Amino acid sequence: MSGRPRVGLIGCGRIGQVHLRNLLAHPEKCEFAALVDSNRGSIETIASAYRLDRASTDVALIFDDPTIDAVVIASSTETHAAYIEAAAGSGKSAFTEKPIALDLDSTDRALAAVERAGTRLQVGFQRRFDSGYAQAREAIESGELGAVEMIRDAMRDPSPPPKEYLAKSGGLFRDMSIHNFDCVRWLKGEDPVEVFAVGSALTSDDVRDVDDIDTSIVTMRFADGSLACIENSRRSGFGYDVRTEIFGSNGALMVGDSRETPVRRYDRLGVHEDHQFFFLERFAGAYEAEMVSFLDAVATDTEVAVTGADGRTALALAEAAERSRKSGLPVPFGSPAVERAGPDSQRMTIRA
Amino acid sequence: MSGRPRVGLIGCGRIGQVHLRNLLAHPEKCEFAALVDSNRGSIETIASAYRLDRASTDVALIFDDPTIDAVVIASSTETHAAYIEAAAGSGKSAFTEKPIALDLDSTDRALAAVERAGTRLQVGFQRRFDSGYAQAREAIESGELGAVEMIRDAMRDPSPPPKEYLAKSGGLFRDMSIHNFDCVRWLKGEDPVEVFAVGSALTSDDVRDVDDIDTSIVTMRFADGSLACIENSRRSGFGYDVRTEIFGSNGALMVGDSRETPVRRYDRLGVHEDHQFFFLERFAGAYEAEMVSFLDAVATDTEVAVTGADGRTALALAEAAERSRKSGLPVPFGSPAVERAGPDSQRMTIRA
Amino acid sequence: MSGRPRVGLIGCGRIGQVHLRNLLAHPEKCEFAALVDSNRGSIETIASAYRLDRASTDVALIFDDPTIDAVVIASSTETHAAYIEAAAGSGKSAFTEKPIALDLDSTDRALAAVERAGTRLQVGFQRRFDSGYAQAREAIESGELGAVEMIRDAMRDPSPPPKEYLAKSGGLFRDMSIHNFDCVRWLKGEDPVEVFAVGSALTSDDVRDVDDIDTSIVTMRFADGSLACIENSRRSGFGYDVRTEIFGSNGALMVGDSRETPVRRYDRLGVHEDHQFFFLERFAGAYEAEMVSFLDAVATDTEVAVTGADGRTALALAEAAERSRKSGLPVPFGSPAVERAGPDSQRMTIRA
Amino acid sequence: MSGRPRVGLIGCGRIGQVHLRNLLAHPEKCEFAALVDSNRGSIETIASAYRLDRASTDVALIFDDPTIDAVVIASSTETHAAYIEAAAGSGKSAFTEKPIALDLDSTDRALAAVERAGTRLQVGFQRRFDSGYAQAREAIESGELGAVEMIRDAMRDPSPPPKEYLAKSGGLFRDMSIHNFDCVRWLKGEDPVEVFAVGSALTSDDVRDVDDIDTSIVTMRFADGSLACIENSRRSGFGYDVRTEIFGSNGALMVGDSRETPVRRYDRLGVHEDHQFFFLERFAGAYEAEMVSFLDAVATDTEVAVTGADGRTALALAEAAERSRKSGLPVPFGSPAVERAGPDSQRMTIRA
């Protein structure tokens, strides 16, 4: 295409509004075309606040509009795959929040639709666009760190989501650890060959009621013997905790936790700093950068930075972790039992 | 007024573009009405990039448009006072970058015009809107820190500006330390009674050529015996350095330096972090917050957070520092020799 | 006993000299009685430097001297058990560097000898006396952290030891991770019920040659569902790395890495700090505190802070990790297959 | 002399005990010969705890013993000069706590006695032996920092001393800032040409009652135009605060505040670290290093690292600051009015 893509947005909940603001803040990159949300009240509130003249509860407003080039999908998880297929069917590129779907079959169908249409699909693993993680990746690729020997990737939410969310989340590994699975394989540049997971329900009855876990450690082994460790919790007790450490033969790089403000308070009890509470604050820059990256890919018709295949492999790793946790045994990854013929010819071969 | 103010912007240089993006990013707060810049090329580039249909090299586009409620002045310093007067003359509120002017007479004329017109004038001391400085002020006002006994406010630029800028800057105290003068008096909640300044030209011949200094320490004494110290340099050798420490009877609060990313690198030489290089990065949030604050004040016809009087007193302190440095003697502040009948009835009585 | 214990020291290598200095620095706590080392040159050098008049290559100097109350064993690992037994046999209390022995049978024989003699035995898990770890333990015991849900304990040496050391070390888990096993069970206040370990030889051929590993992750599960993760490497690439994080329902506590000096350097590349390279520096205070604690226990005939049972359980955990790594399967801990009738009635029942 | 010096210690109060432990901990560097303190109870307690057989309330025990090579003077300030003279008179080298005396005349008499005797005199400016400050000095001397343009040296005590101490202290500048005066001139490698000081009594009536100040800022100008700033307070409100920042043309170096432990606590209020409360903890290593340096100078009959001339100049700067504060005017340093014919030919010419 030539010029700025015209973009529609589906979903104006918390993360949808982040995308909306980032789209509106870049008139040089796109033209905001239409907003759709299934909730009438939300649509009215947001359309009025942002002076949007085209807004509806019906996705046809976007999918039936041939002038719209791309769609950003920020609706609830169970709708992602269908909207990806609808976007592909109407020749539009799509940016979707993670995950593509909660199961590999739906994921494969969505990816096949994109493949057939020849459109673009970017998955919202925003960490890859964070300046900290970008430097980590670069330090690995440039050889600065030497051979990568171990990666530790920890993520904890400040407090568990409501029970309704938990019930539909697909479980801790698919809903939360999926970011870590993507992050580790992206940093490492390859997929593990073995996954071992332990997990427990420690934070609330809600989690036990929906037969999920809230606290987990996943150990991964790579073909070259290097190791990785993912720690997750639904409840940190102190705020949003995202810290990643990469140990190489030449040294280490740590993407650390972030402060809300550069304030330090000194009193008789010691020294006190603040701490970020929400992922939206921690990754505000990353959300903007991933959207700009998507808009650029659409405008120039080039490959997106986070492909559907990336989304699928992260989900496959989550499923492997789930199987390990339930069986109590390590699970090989990339073995025939897991391998599928993927519809996807994008950047990285899916092996699991 | 009712509804969103319509806002024009004069100046689309570095800081002007920051204000432009913040205005465009808040369609719920304002309607962007017109862009003016004296440079035709800049206007064309920016208007095209941001799809602005009303742009001109002639300020009449803004001042002659009765539908425009407010103007943001980000043009070069020597134009500020005239545009403030023009804004007042056409009944528009104004946000101006600091300083209002390089001398107190021009400042007083501009403030008198605003006073007569009954419009609003906000001065761009953005630090007050930084989350770190806001917490510092709050910790003082709430009594958390106890009695404030000493304030240390350091600011260093990464590298000196070009000679042309230096020649028109009004000197280190008026151009750079003015932020510190405002910051200290705002934090302390009162003006000092004595100012002593030393300064040197150490970083380049340019500075000496224009008879200015680039390195200075200003000591201030307050009526209650508390002290303050301002350190400035045109060249830090490492990046943008803004750190403020407040010592009270109950403890201390420090607004520290900021990192670009949350990355720490460990190697045989030690541990390495990055550091911010530009004030635009350090104060990105503050620039947005000050603009929202101004738009809210205009929309609700309430007092702005940083008044013309604040701008005038900061300039008066810069002049006192200049006199001290040149005489080698401490200069009393607030004495009859300095006192003027200010045209301003805003928040804080001008004493110098 | 009454008064200061008279203390002999066996071994004046690197760690032996640390103990020597700590014994000499506390004349109010003990009387230094005799030094023994199998190396004649070392004995002469050290005895001369420290003006020690009783020194020998023969341990009889200590074990045959009835005026000596206690012995500090800092000789090579394979001698520990025999000297513990000799100390018990001559009615002396003993402080031994870890491990008691490289296998559980030898360990059990040594503990049985101590049990029969009714003497004291303290094992050199010095971390427990570090002010940081002591605060961590206290924060857990006091309930400040709430329920402990996850512990992450990482330790990396700056560079691998020589091949000769590796060959006799007993392997990474028995030689290095043993500190982590002790630390985690001490912090948690209980033993895990399952251990899973992965490991690789990544840093040198030496490690492969002796059929050992140099990089490992051990995951542990506790009866209450809480989890722990131990990371080890023989080579950090940047210095000595000891960091422990405890996540509880109320928050987290992290014992972090340490700097050599409080210096920060700022230049155009960023901000630089130093980092400690050796465990002797990191734990200098802990080595002194553990010795004072041992001397106090001997002087007052009260229980030591780190018992032989503690040393045995840490070794049992290392063996469980070794079995897990070799089998590729999780290993239950405390099951009948592992349980033994321990000779030890000290503080904590040995279950494995 | 050949071999280890025999050393006597006068004064076993807080700082005296620090020196005692450091002397006893280095049997390879010295032989501890005798302890003197004017307080009989202290002598008995300390001599018994440390098993010292030669202790007295009479300094003759030291000065009349020809086998004693050196004396460490840690008694109260008003006795320093007399004991320095007595040491010189009996041919012994001396280490004295700062200051040599509270006035320049007594200082000059003591230095003249040392000069005549040809003995050594080291003054206890322990900061110079701190690893952080040593690196700062090295970074300046090596040129790493480029030209030094500004030094900021802040020191705050956790809480004011008792009134009796204040009354005899010589005032804030002589008692406390003297460390900063020495530090700045040592780092800079030269003396300032102008001193301006402001100060207030803010922390207690005690300070006002003895006509002293407790809070001060001293600005200093050097011949090359570079600047320095010293901040002091008798009461920080949070602990012992010693931080020094050096700004050069190539970057900056900061000797920062120190933590008691490497613990960080994370909870809903933020992140919390501890902070050191006492100078004895902060400078424990420096106190040991300065004593070893003195013992080495005595053993090898070479120049000490901190000379009597250094002690005198720091006092002269304190007097200049006092004059500035009282007159309200900057005071030139090194001018004829201040210059004296010093008896001292040691490392640095005394100019003031």
Main traits of this protein?
homotetramer; 352 residues; alpha/beta; Dihydrodipicolinate Reductase, domain 2; 2 domains; 12 helices; 15 strands; 37% helix
Q: What's a concise summary of this model?
A:
Chain A is an alpha/beta fold. The first copy, chain A, has helices at residues 14-24, 40-49, 60-63, 80-89, 104-117, 131-141, 163-168, 172-188, 205-209, 279-282, 284-300, 308-327, and strands spanning 6-10, 31-36, 55-56, 70-73, 93-96, 121-123, 148-156, 194-200, 215-221, 227-233, 241-248, 251-255, 263-267, 270-273, 331-332.
What does this structure look like?
- Four copies of one chain form a homotetramer.
- With 352 residues, chain A is an alpha/beta fold.
- Chain A has two domains: 6-119, NAD(P)-binding Rossmann-like Domain (Rossmann fold), CATH 3.40.50; 128-281 and 314-344, Dihydrodipicolinate Reductase, domain 2 (2-Layer Sandwich), CATH 3.30.360.10.
- Chain A has twelve helices and 15 strands.
- In chain A, the strands form three sheets. A seven-stranded mixed beta sheet of chain A has the order 12-11-7-10-9-8-15. A six-stranded parallel beta sheet of chain A has the order 3-2-1-4-5-6, sandwiched between helices. A two-stranded antiparallel sheet of chain A has the order 13-14.
- In chain A, a hairpin with a 2-residue loop joins strand 11 and strand 12 (251-255).
- The longest helix of chain A is centred in the last third of the chain and has 20 residues, at 308-327.
- Chain A starts with 5 loop residues before the first strand and ends in a 20-residue tail after the last strand.
- The C-D interface holds C 21, 24-25, 27-28, 49-51, 130-132, 135-136, 139, 250-258, 260-268 and D 21, 24-25, 27-28, 49-51, 130-132, 135-136, 139, 250-258, 260-268.
